[in-house]
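Exercise: predict the fold of this chain.
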Amino acid sequence: MGFKDRIGKALGASEGSLHPDGLAELIVGDAAYDDWDIVRDFGDLETARAWRQALSEQGFETVITSDWPVDEYGKGDISLRVPQGKGLEAEELLDEPEE
């Protein structure tokens, strides 16, 4: 058993591969969302999910997309998207300071 396998086992991943939380929420390579507005780009799935939740709680329809699958640690080129025409409103909401 190699180091990577031991780490995977310690984290509860089966067969030596890691599976980041929220992988089922990530839409990979689906051109149906290409016309949706990109609100923000992220390097990891965990951060993208947190921002997605913040927008969803405010009533926005949101998706997390990537052109390619993320690595076993949830790292990759990930975009948070909202339907076309809603991007500016979503960005403004995320930029508002909390009171």
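Check your answer against the key: DSSP finds three helices and four strands in the chain.
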